[in-house]
Structure formats: C-alpha cells, structure tokens
Amino acid sequence: MNSRERDEGLSLDEWYNRYYTPLVLWADTIIHDIAKAEDIVQELFVYLCEKDRYQSLDKIAFKSYLYISVRNTALRSLHACRNIQTLPDISIVEKVWDEEEEDTYEDLIKQMNEEVERLSPRSREVLECVYLKNMKYAEVATHLNISIATVKTLLVRSLKNLRTRLNKSILLFFYHLVRVK
Amino acid sequence: MRGEPFDIQLLDYITGHLADAEYERMREWIEEEEAHRDYYERFYLEYLRQRWYFRARLIREKGRRRYAIRGWRRRVARYVIPLAASVVLLLGVFWGYQSGMWERGPGPVVATSGDIVPGTLKAKLMVDEEQVIPLDDNTSDVVEIAGVQPFVKTPGNIDYRGNEERSLYVRHHLLIVEKGGEYAITLEDSTFVQLNSASTLGYPVVFTGNERRVKLSGEAYFRVKSNQEIPFIVEVGDISIQVTGTEFNVNTHKKNQIETVLVTGSVDIIKDTCRYPLKISQKATYMIDSKEVIVEPVEIDTYVAWKNGDIIFVDERLEDIMYKLSLWYDFEVFYAQPEVKDILLSGDMMKYDRIENLLYFFENSSGIVFEITGRKIVVSMKK
Predict the structure, then answer these.
(1) Which of residues 114-153 of A touch B (CB under 8 A)?
(2) Total of domains in chain B
(3) Could you give the CA distance from residue B121 to residue B141 in angstroms, rounded to a whole number?
(4) Neighbours of B5 (CB within 10 A)
(5) Which residue range forms the structural domain that includes residue A106?
(6) Which member of A63, B215, B263, B373 lies 3.0 to 4.6 Å from B235 by CB, making a disulfide possible if both were Cys?
(7) How many CB atoms sit inside 10 A of residue B218's CB?
(8) Ranges of chain B whose pLDDT falls below 50
(9) Interface contact flag, B7 A163, Cβ < 8 Å
(10) pLDDT of res. B325
(11) Is B114 contained in some domain?
C-alpha cells in the first residue's frame, strides 16, 4: 500500500496526528520560528474543522494541499526585508517525512540518531548552533573560534556523511524520481 | 558528487546566502539539465531532513492541544449531544445506561470511576452563629429569616433588593460557597457578585452610611452598581479594592497572591495609605509576603472564563491547574514525583464537563498519567 492510498480516507484528526510535526517543521523552514510555525499549523487545522470545510475539500491531493497552505501562510508572514531563500518543489518537501517505502518515521529518526552520533563533536556542535540555537554562520564561527568557511564546510560535510550512509533510501529516492517521469 | 566548494555554494543558494550574480548562475545551472535538477533536489531533501531532525526537538505542541480540544468539542457536538438527546427521550427505560453513553463516546484512558463530578449550584447562608440556611438549585422564593427577606427568583442567585433595615444596628450575612459549589448574590444596592467554589462573601443586608463595604475570601466576579457618591469597597486579606461602578474579578486562590483583574470601569487597589489605580485589561497582583503590588496588562478571558462556564489554562503549572480544578470538582491531588508539578500545560474545557475528558488530553499531550480512585487523583510521569 503506498502512501497515497494510505492517506485517502483519513479523518481530519488523523491528518493532524500524522502531519502536525512535519507541517510545523516546514513552516519553520521558511520563517525560522518554531512557536509561530506551530501557530500557523494550528490555525490551518482550526480553519479546516470549522464549518465542515474539510468535508467539502478534495482529498486526492490533500497532503500537497496542507504543505502548500502552510508555505503560503508562512511566506505571507515573513518580513519583506528578509533574504528570501529558494524553496523547493512541494513534492520534495512531502518526501522528507514519508518516503515511498515501508520506512516509518520512527525508523528514520533512529537512523538519523545513529548518523548524528557518528559525526565528529565539532560537526555536531556546528549543527546544534545552526539548527537549535538559530545562530548565524558568523556567530557560530566566533562562538566556536573557527572560520566561517569551516562552519560551512562542516555543515556540508555532515550532509555528505549522512548522504553516503543513507545510501539505501537515496537509491530508492532516485528510483522514485525515475518512475514518476 | 561535485566537490565541497560546489556543495557549499548550493547550500548557500538554498538558504539565501548567495549574492545576486552567483544566485543567477546557480539557478541556471540547476535548470540546465535534468541530472542537475535531480542533484539539487536530492541535496535539498537531505538538507531538510537534517534541519527538521534537529528542529523537531523545539516543538512544544502547545498548538496540538488547543486543536485537539477544539476537535474534541466538535465531536461531542456531533455525536454525544444527539446521543444524549436520545438518551433523555428514553430516560425512563435507559436511566441505568447513561454512563455507558460516555464509554461509547471519545473514551478517556484514565479510569472512569464517576466519583468526581462537576460542581453544582449550592451555598450556605449564614445569618448568625445559630442559623445556617442551605441553598441549592431547588431553593426558590423567599428565604425565611427574621427581619430581612432575601428571595431566590432565579436558581443560584440570592437577591437582597427591596429590603429595609428595621433594626438599630446593621446585620451582616455570610454567603459560603464550599468546594464543588457556585452561587451568586444580588446585594441590596443591585450589585451582582458571582462566587466561585471555595469562596466566602460577608456583606450587610442593607447598605447604610457613606460606603458600601463587603469582605471576600476566595474568588468572585463583581458587577458593581454605579454610585459616584457611595464607593463600593471589597476587603480582601490586608488590601481593599475601591470602586464606584465597574466589573472586575478578584481571586485569592493562588498561593501568596491576591489577583484583581479589571474588565470595565476603573478600580483602585488600596494597601494602607498607598493607592494603585487599575485600568481596563490590567491585573494587579498583591504579593502577600512582600506586600508588593504589581500591575500588568493581561488577556481578560482567561481570568473570567469561569463565570461563563469555561475553564481556560494558558501555560499554567500543573499544580496550579490541579488546585483550581480540585476546588470545582472537589477532589484531592497527590503527586508521585514533585517535578510533575512544574509542567506547563494549556487547554480549555466547559466547566460542566467530566474531568476525565480534560485529563485525557493532558495525558495525550504531555506524558503525565492521572489515576483516579474515588475522590483522589494521583499524578505521575509516564514510565
């Protein structure tokens, strides 16, 4: 059973339980503020449950609908002056949380845990500063007493490390890309 | 694999760190070939996966609870109310099955013992040391007391309007609302006071002289009849609240604090010779220990929701929440681990709901377990 078949026929609450976290993380990717991101997702679901709006919506591409709604609201709430980052296609975003294969999210997290454990302490520190503490590259560099170039290198290298080890899912990902076309 | 410098550029492109010219060059490169686009998308996917993996720890799930409770209300409206209506129709036959109705609804995981129920309309009217009159939702008409005749026209509201003091000294009555009760009173001057559970109001049966003075402990909502000449004074602990005509909420149920929240009009908090004026939507907190008064703006709804039949918590400590609930539902709380007390939770519910439904959502959203035995609730962390 692929994820599309699985998702059809879900109740709004089930959608909520399954996609609350990825939708918040997606909004946060754009606005860099978890609390506001949570508000955005919460408001979306409250909006959907009011006046039976959910019932009257087309469920076939509902997952995309959710990701797109969250993206649009998040973009609207951005300050005009911020650097606009390049956002990926929604089809990419949808894949972060659930791959086409059997892997559950818990498996993925377990895998990620192991990967992060294997990184050098420095790399982990950089990742934590950038992702958890929302620090700018320059701030991380000063904080850890390294150059900005090193910060970037460590970031990319940690991605690459993860990439070579997560080989299996990447192959499947390519397979998926080929199949879709 | 295209080499580290390239990947760094790609990361900068994704995160918006590239200057215009470089940005354009990267965009063109991605559009050039399908393989480039694939490389970019795969890179982006990994970037997101990594970012999300870290950022997921920051989610506090406050929103989840709010939606869950709203969603639950929606379900209740859809299934339980029609179900309840049919139960009422068949009341004679199915009386014994009424509790079963809840089990078929969104069933809580906490034990449904049924011993803990919402409060009801009830109070004790203390006329003097000898005469105590119980009041409940069946009490109606005139309450028999020598000298004065308060009446209960609407259930749950004892009314002193139209009384005259005939004796030489002013008599005082005491309206006592215990745990698990609520009651309201209309004083002789038409001032309306709604008392929450575990609260007591002392007042003269008739106001005479140049002030209207009452005494409160616990929590009450006041709608004071406007009278510029004769100020209305509420004595609470060692402060007093002076008003002419206004609406406000006073609460002494929090440890070491007396809270006054102003809804309309204006009030002065008076401590000895100091006066602290309060504006609309402000809260004055009097710290009993340090004898300080702190004035700050607040969201009024949270403080006065109880009088409209709701209970709202916004990021409150579990211990404070349970204390508040224990007054209305009349139960005792025990904590298996002291750390549990400091967990912050949000939620809202209708105060005539069963407590299990609220606890159920707390359990789902926090990792706390509630165990109900009789009128006791034991709170512990999930193992």
Answers:
(1) 116, 127-128, 131-132, 137, 152-153
(2) 3
(3) 16
(4) 12
(5) 100-181
(6) B215
(7) 20
(8) 1, 75, 78-111
(9) no
(10) 92
(11) no
